Amino acid sequence: MPSASPAAPASRRVTAAVLLGLGLLTYHYLRLPALWHDEAALVLNVLHRDFRDYLGPLLYHEAAPPLFLALERLAFLAFGDSLYALRLLPFLSSCLALLLFARLARQWLPDTSAAWAVLLFACSDRFLWHACEAKPYAVDLLVATGVLALWTSSRDWPPARRLALYAPLAPLLIWLSYPACFVCGGLLVALLPEVWQARRAGLGVGYVLCGAAVVAAFLLLALGPVRAQRCPEMESCWTAMFPDWRRPWLVPVWAARATLGVLNYCCQPAGVALAVPAVAGAWHLLRRGEGAFLALLAAPPGLALVASLIGAYPYGGARVLFYAAPAALLLTGAGLAPLAAWLDGHLRWGRWALALALLCPPVNAGLRLAAPWKRAETPRAAAHVLAYRREGEAVLCNCWECFYHFRGVVPEARSLHDDGATAVPARAWVVVVGAEDARREEIVASLLRERALLERRDYRMVTVLLLTEPRGTSAAE
């Protein structure tokens, strides 16, 4: 049973952790981090494609759930195309996920463990990152947390009533969040023992209908939007997230390392160290007779692992597994007290090591206030081009971010990849973005072999060039 009733007052430490998390979320949202590569690709789909287009292939090799794209489109139509508007859904989803997780922690964990779990959740580096980007991962987190909260709130309901709730809800969640198919699969796994033990025909039919709703929604999604969005360019990004079946004896090693990667991604930079209390928490829940809840926590990432084994879904320390964060941190919180008690009796210095691991995410979150994530300074570069560009001067870019910044202002903006240096008109601005200085300089050098340089400006990860015709040529020629 949960350790506290839903009506129990929140401890001051849990409340303080929630307030800290909400403050960090708001700070990073309001400071408006620069748009990054994949985020820009999704934003351009929101701005330039319509609702019906979200069922087919997307621009720029992008992939996202249709309902998420539709909600982003509604936000754009209602509030405009600013990054604040486009990131509003992920920001609000993160805030709600934090509040729901705090409620879950108070219900399932002792007071001190609940405070630590909420603090780890609130200070997770990836949690704060995904909350201020126009991508679906914060919504994935909300769906996973919401299902856990719904399960906990309805645990005293008759099984038939719970199935009647989950059956119509599951298709909506699956079309809102791709990992929701694993989360809903976890629901079915967790419910199966109770339905099996009841041995009532009506309940069995209800379970089959609920499962059919999940499977039907998944198949429609997989055979429609997912198939349309899948492409070689996207698959090449996830090569390391699948096992190498050419050496099958190493697949278990890969699976173990990938699982540690999931934990580390969910709670950087100390997620690997927290694997120990997470395992202890799983054992603790099992001994308490909470096997169904343990299945609900463990089944969704477990199903993702199975999907990876057959080449259907990436698995490991990446954003597509961030939905596992609430389950991982609840297991970590459940294992803190029994692990600390064991360490006191067997390995006293181990308690200090555990405390150090727990403090790493909050310390890292504090450092992010002074040194946020480094992103290319494309807003400054685009502002310079817009300030000094003359009418008729073209703009070429090698990044999708620039297409957002030049939207509706520079009709001549084109892709440098498509047009190449030889397509540069008499005078043109070129914006070259790249994290590696050497790679940017290589692109700049190739451009200067074809055109003369009038101006160059360098920003973080960005170089801006104003180019004209080669020396010795003229427009008449």
> Which sequence of SSEs, written as H and E, runs from N to C?
HHHHHHHHHHHHHHHHHHEHEHEHEE
Strand content: 5-15%
Report Rg: 25 Å
Please summarize the sheet with the most strands: 5 strands, mixed
Task: Explain how this protein is built.
A 5-stranded mixed sheet has the order 2-1-3-5-4, sandwiched between helices. By secondary structure, it is mainly α. The radius of gyration is 25 Å and the shape is globular. The N terminus is likely disordered. 64% of the residues lie in helices and 6% in strands. The longest helix is centred in the middle third of the chain and has 29 residues. The N and C termini lie far apart (84 Å).
Give the SSE map.
Elements (H helix, E strand, L loop, with lengths): L11 H19 L6 H12 L17 H14 L3 H4 L1 H21 L2 H13 L1 H7 L5 H17 L5 H18 L3 H19 L2 H29 L2 H5 L14 H16 L8 H13 L3 H19 L15 H22 L1 H23 L7 H11 L5 E4 L2 H6 L8 E2 H4 L7 E7 L3 H12 L3 E8 L2 E7 L9
Parallel strand pairs: 1-2, 1-3
Antiparallel strand pairs: 3-5, 4-5
